[in-house]
Structures are given as C-alpha cells and as structure tokens.
Amino acid sequence: MSKNIAIIGSGFAGMMAALGASRLRHEAGVSPEEMTITVISPKPELVIRPRLYERDPQQMVASLVDLFAATDILHHAGSVEAIDAAASTIGIVGADGSATTLPFDRLVLAAGSDGFAPPIPGLAEFGFAGTQLDEAVALDRHLHKLATKPASAARNTVVVGGAGFTGLEFATEMPARLREILGKDADVRVIIVDRSAHVAPAMGDDPLPFIEERLRTLGIETRMNVGISSLDERGVTLADGQHIETITVIWSAGMRASPLTVQLPGERDNLGRIVVEPDLRVPGAPNVFATGDTAKARTDAHGNFAAMSCQHARRLGAFAGHNAAADLLGLETLPYDQPAYVTCLDLGPDSAIFTRGWDSRVEVSGEQAKAIKREINEIWIYPPAADRTAAYENVLAARTIDF
C-alpha cells in the first residue's frame, strides 16, 4: 500500500521539503507509486517574499509545475484549515469552497508566517503591508495612483511603521520609487517610526553607523522611542501626540507563524513557532515535522535559533523533507544545524550591507554589497532548474553547505 508524505505550503521551506523527500526516495530506490509526496498550497508556485519591497511585486512569483513534474512531486490545490495529528489527516478547502480530507503517513508543516498587525485604531482601514503578495501588489497600485492626486504633504509622504529589516528595505526603496511616480523633482518625504531606541535593533551595533549614514544620504527621517497610536484618512498620530500628514503608511513591525501551529501539541514561542526536536519533529506528534517559519529550531550549540528568513527556511525545509522520508522508510533522521548566519540588507538603489554572524559584523558595504544582494534576490533564492539532477544537487547543497 502506498505511503504518503503531505507537505503544507509551497514557500521556501515547503519547496525544499518536497525536494528533500523526493531525493531520499530516489536514492532509496522507492518508486513514486510506493511513496507519494504531495504539496498542498493554493497554487504550485513560490512567492519570492524577500523581493516584495521592490517594484512590480506581481512578478515575484516562480512556477513550480515543471520542477514538481521532474521530481515526481504531486500538488493539491487548496488551503489547509485543519490538522488532526492523532488521526493522521488534514482538512483542505479548495478555491471553490469544496472540502477534502487527505490522510498522511508523515506530515511536514511548512505553512510559513504572516505579518503581525496590532490593534492600532485605523491600521486595518488606512494602512498597507507587504509581507504577502496580495498586500505588496495593493501597495504598489496605491503608490502609482498617487500620481493622479493633487500635490500635497500627505500625498508626498510615506510613513513606515517598523525599523527592522523589512521596514528598512521598504523605506530605502521609497524615495527613488516615489520620484519615478511623482516626478524627479517631487518633494518626497519618508519617515520611519519605531519604539526602539535606534533602527535595526536586532542587528547589533556594528551595522548601525552605516545604516544611519545611508538614511541621512537618502533624506529619510526617523522617529525613535515612539509608536504609532492611530491612523485616519489624514495621516498618523504618534504616541507622543505628533501628527504626520500622509495617505501612505506601510506597516512592517513583526511576523507571526501560521495559526495552524496551534492545532499541534507542544510548546510555542512568542512568535507562534513550535519548539521542535533536533530532527524538527513536533513533540507529542511523532508523525509530524515542522519547518521554516513554523518551527523554533536550534541552529547550533551556542543558543541560537533559526530566524524567520528564506536563508533558514531553505535549509530547514531540506532537513524536514529528508527526515520525513527517512522516518517513513525506517532510516535514521538527521539533526538540523545551521551554524553560519549571514544577512544582506538592501539600502536603496545602489547600496547594501552584507554581514556575518549573529552579531552582524559588516563584511561588505555599498555598491559591492548591492551586487551581492542582486545576486541573492535574482538567482540564489529562486527554485532550481526543472531537472532531477539539478534539483537534487540544489537540495543537498542547502542541507550541507554553509556560507
């Protein structure tokens, strides 16, 4: 009787989990009929989420149809709404509202994460986000519609809520993007607002001088040690009472794991991620593995844990898929590790910084780092070629090679 590995999500972790399971199945000489691998997601595609701050976000999608065909991976179109780990089933709702129950022998939860929107008055009505494709497309359309409005301080001002990685990439993209839309001589204004004492609080001290200098060069203002208390059709009001006229507020402060994590046993962290075992198994659910943004996984022996990033998601996925297949075949699973950690922060049209280590030591900056960022965004994070050998080499590299 055929065994089935079900993988929830076709993001970076889900794609790599499917390829990892397929690779081990192939190496073990098991046919696709004997062990099926099924990815469940609305569409067989990978949204390139790290690029959603860029122009034309609707283009940041890569089809997985040919890749899945080349590696004998099935796709089930729909959204998972229920997980019953004890019964080994998942409940799926299709785009037409039809309900399906899919049994599994092993499950990989790679459902990703969503932006966290706190209950700030007016945020849902007047704010924008860019962590999901539809959000980024809506923001892009709004920006282009600004050109149809009369010039005003509100039209020409963008407020970015959040001074972390995502907020900085959106903010530093905005001056040039606004001038393309409103005219090169437009008097544009970009303001970052955050409760932290300084920008990029998670990156430590080393990158801070370069980031702050870059913000000054681009004319980007910051309002630190203060939060946004409300939004309305005229602008935002900060917690200190200051009001900023704007019709464009981009919220980028925080992520939360897929709510599907609450349907599984085990401890969760403050981001909603399941604290997994070394091989990414969910405690209390031996037939389920969590990966990507749904897993809080230890990366090394020094107390570091995987971040919500495609860098970690790709490797986490490769391990999770391999381990789900290995467990089903009666083979030893592998403990996940990822001792190397790098970041590449985009800082506008011609600059970036590349850092290494959890203390974010700057190794490359300026135009040279920007070239690295382009290569990451345009080549490294895209799916491998729709060729079995190339795909399997890619997933092995993700599991074994450190930067």
UniProtKB/TrEMBL annotation:
Ranges where the FAD/NAD(P)-binding domain occurs: 4-313
Cofactor(s) the protein requires to work: FAD
Origin organism lineage: Bacteria, Pseudomonadati, Pseudomonadota, Alphaproteobacteria, Sphingomonadales
Pfam families per record: Pyr_redox_2
Organism from which the protein derives: Sphingomonas crocodyli
Protein's UniProt name: NAD(P)/FAD-dependent oxidoreductase
GO biological process annotation, one example: aerobic electron transport chain
A GO term, aspect molecular function: NAD(P)H dehydrogenase (quinone) activity
Family as reported in the entry's similarity comment: Belongs to the NADH dehydrogenase family.
Keyword terms: FAD, Flavoprotein, Oxidoreductase
